[in-house]
Amino acid sequence: MNNAFNHPQTVVVLGGTSEIAGALIDRLIANRCRTVVLAGRDTDGLVHATRRAEARGADIVRSVVFDALENDKAEETIAACFDAADAPVDLVVVAVGFLGNAGADLDDAERIAESITVNFTWPAVALGVVARHLRAQGSGRIVVLSSVAGIRIRAANFIYGSAKAGLDGFALGLAESLRGSGVQLQVVRPGFVRTKMTAGLRPAPFAVDPDSVATAVMRGIERNQPVIWVPSLLRWVFLGLRHLPQEVWRRLPG
Amino acid sequence: MGVTHTPLTSQSSEPHRWVIARGLGRSYGDAAQCSGGVVVDTSAYSSIGLIDPVTGLVEVGGGTSLAAIMRVSLASGWFIPVSPGTRHVTVGGAIAADVHGKNHHRDGSFCSFVASLTLVTPAGIFTISPDEDAELFWATAGGMGLTGVVVKATLRLIRVETSWMETDTERCDDLDAVMSAMEEADHNYRYSVAWVDCSSRGKHLGRSVLTRGDHAPIGALGLANATSFIDIPAESRVRVPFTLPLSAVGPHTVQAFNALWFRKSPKRKCGAIVPLTSFFYPLDGINEWNLLYGRRGFVQYQFVVGPQHADVVRAAVGMMGPAGIPSSLAVLKRFGPGDPGPLSFPIEGWTLALDFPAGLPGLPPLLDRLDELVVGVGGRIYLAKDARLRPELLRAMYPRIGELEAVRDRVDPDHVLQSDLSRRLGIGQKVPS
């Protein structure tokens, strides 16, 4: 159960091998979390993330292997995660994503489809299933990792960005539909995060580390913030950026 | 009454239908919440029987509020034997939390005045008392509703001559002074409680106002009150109209309020006659006072430690100032011996209740440190107010919890009776090794 400070005891992380997820799990365990279910594609990564969670003090750590290209298996994956938790699930983190390379991928129809599936379709299907489980449970929280890349699309990463835009909108809509059910959904919109996914790219202004994202998400959970911007200043920056003429937007660095 | 008692049975078609009873919802934590399950509204069980003019015994419904009982009973000179800080609690809730009042050092907690009760459980309906199925009776006393739904109880009321209180108030400059004053003379009073200033820094930290008293006999009332020995208390009409966007209770407002409260109290005043409601139920003066804490609400923390561990109280108060986390309200009291309930909170010693705005930075780790301090000397925290205890500490604080779990296995073998609190703390569930 969540306690008075919204600290969860049982957590399911979809995309549990990501660096942001890892940093967040560390913080959750430092507070009240005792059971962690990690779902991911990379089995070595899952073993590593499991050891890390155990070392931080979680009592029960279990892993579920899935592939975010297989939409038809999302239902099964989520059911396996809830079974593995073996207790009311207090928090589900959706941290599934893949950046890709917009320039190179554009010529390959399959690559475009894959990026949209991993970044939008699979998470959306999974969110629907998660929402159903949590509704039945009568309580719980969902945190969806979106990105500012979906707030104003730019040429450098527009395939990823457009998929995130879809996911962001889907999540906000789902949050509305969950009102009054005892289930809350929060959207996280980080700026440029320095991780292995963005290695080799030139950091955009306001770049942050996975640790800062995790800290901001913890704070956002404690305060029930519907949308968590990281860093928080980006909320106001994007208020302006959203309305910039395309001519100007195109010339901005990052 | 038009309500039939039906045994609560596990609804096998829907495997996850948990059940918990709810009274007037004054528990500060998640004791009467049951997400994904069924919350039983007990307000239908609000009958009040005739008061036995000799013994003061009265049969009431489990959903009857203490306020309703006293409206009836005061007229014939009977009063609630144990009063928590608000009269808007039900009898069922008072039993489930085994609530205490300012007279615990002399009279014990609420369940000491329960002659018998009727409990609806998944295994059937039981009428129990300290003599009849004592095991189930005491597991229910303080059992947080996990043994069943109290639908009826027979209470032993106490005789009063008037609805007024005769009180002595004194100001103490620090915590040591108030604690020794309480040790020396509490036994001379039926009721005793101290308000402690936990927001000041330096030498003012722990200054207190000690209020003690008893029901005023008719002879103690002056001429002015001579025509109204018994005033049936009216409900306050003051109310906080809406949730404030931010907490009005912060370090600065708390400090200012506490300083004002301390100065307003008399240095020493004996024999003051005050209405019973302002003495017992300060929380009922402003309806929905909790909204003052803003959207994020507040957290209350109450612990008890043995009489020889006054140093833990001192350490707890000492932790407030330096951490910059002042408690907005701190109440100190001495408990007498506890009753046999395995999950009943009171044990003999010192109890300190602290209120905090939930959003204060650094509050969760501070409360975790307090837990360690308390459990280290065999103390415990009050589950009726808890919403954040580390589950690992529950069994150290309540070593007899196994007795409650055994009784529960008898009357609720399928563990239908569950609350958010029981699931959060793992009561009646296997503990991960």
Give a structural overview.
The complex is a heterodimer of chains A (254) and B (433). In chain A, 46% of the residues lie in helices and 15% in strands. Chain A has 254 residues and is α/β, with parallel strands linked by helices. In chain A, strand 5, helix 6 (158-177) and strand 6 (183-190) form a beta-alpha-beta unit. In chain A, helix 1 crosses helix 7 (210-222), helix 3 crosses helix 5 (109-137) and helix 5 runs parallel beside helix 6 (158-177). Chain A is globular and about 55 Å long. Chain B has 433 residues and is of the alpha+beta class. Chain B has two domains: 19-160 and 394-425, 2-Layer Sandwich (Uridine Diphospho-n-acetylenolpyruvylglucosamine Reductase, domain 3), CATH 3.30.465; 164-390, 2-Layer Sandwich (Alpha-Beta Plaits), CATH 3.30.70. Helices cover 25% and strands 22% of the residues of chain B. Chain B has twelve helices and 16 strands. Chain B has helices spanning 66-73, 91-96, 104-107, 134-140, 175-185, 251-264, 276-280, 310-323, 363-376, 391-397, 401-411, 420-425, and strands at 19-22, 38-41, 57-61, 78-79, 114-121, 124-128, 149-156, 158-159, 164-172, 191-196, 208-215, 268-275, 298-305, 329-335, 349-357, 380-381. In chain B, the strands form four sheets. An eight-stranded antiparallel beta sheet of chain B has the order 12-9-11-10-14-15-13-16. Residues 1-6 and 9-13 of chain B have low confidence and may be disordered. The chains are: A alpha/beta (254), B alpha+beta (433). Chains A and B meet through loops of A and helix 12 of B.
Helix fraction of chain B, binned, reads 10-25%
Query: How many strand segments of chain A?
Result: 7
Count the domains of chain A. 1
CA radius of gyration of chain A is 17 Å
Which CATH first-tier class of the largest domain in chain B would you pick? Alpha Beta
If helices are DSSP runs of H or I spanning 4 or more residues, what is the number of helices of chain A? 9
What would you say the CATH architecture of chain A is?
3-Layer(aba) Sandwich
Biggest beta sheet attributes of chain A = 7 strands, parallel
**For this structure, what is the CATH homologous superfamily of chain A?**
NAD(P)-binding Rossmann-like Domain
Low-confidence stretches of chain A: none
Morphology call of chain A:
globular
Predict the CATH topology of chain A.
Rossmann fold
